[in-house]
Specification:
Layout (H helix, E strand, L loop, with lengths): L1 E6 L1 E2 L3 H17 L4 E3 L14 H4 L9 H13 L2 E10 L2 E9 L5 E6 L15 E2 L7 E3 L2 E5 L8 H10 L3 E5 L11 H17 L4 E5 L2 E2 L12 E4 L5 E5 L5 E6 L1
Parallel strand pairs: 1-3, 2-12, 3-4, 5-7, 9-10, 10-11
Antiparallel strand pairs: 1-15, 4-5, 5-6, 8-9, 11-13, 13-14
């Protein structure tokens, strides 16, 4: 499978972010990619504030305007598109992800289970979580999602392993506390842990993080992407701080 790794430079303008995503999807399709993965909460960035009045505006229904736009791009490019997105469901907000197939249908939707995408004191009736992991079978193989902190929960990685999926789609929004793009710290401290946890899933894991614009206010996510084989080998890696589309042969 040929995979596009869509490392967005996320801005405060949702329409600009979605335009980037559509353009990258078209570029990936022209490059012969079968699938493109975008990061966690890609249309907006992970900029929730634990204030429901403000944060409800970040979400939208699934299906909704953003997924409709991406569905059109999937049909035009004959490509699978996967992305993280804030989902509004009634008066609740979820940190979700979708896989859209080349016919424009939502083939798989996942709601992040791990809670640390919001503050510990956030209103639990508004900031909601998923409770299950499922897979979808496609001509490319079978897929499941985990989002960011999910990967570090042994129970969740075991669930993915039990599903016996071929591909784990893993959108993230990751930053260091000091806001740096510290490649050495990533290589020596963080990357080995991500690989160790990915190995537990028994799947080939595709991970994409986004880059923050300075005015986004999310802690300065540092980008980067990685494809980790079932044996823990690195199939493809993109250094921190580099926006754009990168192609991986898996």
């Amino acid at each position: 499978m040929k995979v596009g790794l869509g490392i967005l430079e996320v801005t405060c303008d949702r329409s600009k972010n979605l335009k980037q995503m559509v353009e990258m999807a078209h570029e990936a399709a022209k490059s012969g990619a079968d699938l493109i993965l975008f990061p966690e909460a890609a249309p907006t960035g992970l900029i929730n504030s634990d204030d429901p009045i403000k944060d409800i505006k970040l979400g939208e229904p699934i299906p909704g305007p953003a997924t409709s736009l991406l569905s059109q791009a999937a049909v035009e490019g004959n490509i699978y598109i996967a992305t993280g997105i804030f989902e509004k469901d009634g008066n609740s907000l979820y940190d979700s992800a979708v896989l859209i197939d080349p016919c424009g249908h939502i083939a798989l939707k996942y709601r992040r289970i791990s809670p640390l995408w919001h503050g510990r004191g956030a209103n639990p009736s508004f900031y909601r979580h998923g409770n299950s992991i499922s897979k979808v079978k496609t001509p490319l193989g079978s897929f499941a999602f985990l989002i960011c902190g999910d990967l570090f929960d042994d129970y969740l990685t075991q669930q993915v392993k039990n599903l016996q999926v071929d591909w784990l789609l893993y959108p993230v929004a990751r930053c260091f506390d000091d806001g740096s793009y510290d490649q050495k710290r990533w290589d020596t401290e963080e990357k080995p842990e991500y690989i160790r946890c990915a190995l537990k899933t028994g799947a080939t894991s595709i991970m994409v993080n986004y880059l923050s614009r300075e005015d986004l206010g999310d802690g300065n996510s540092f980008g980067g992407a990685m494809v980790v084989g079932k044996d823990g080998s690195i199939i493809k890696e993109v250094p921190l701080g580099k926006p754009g589309l990168f192609i991986a042969e898996t």
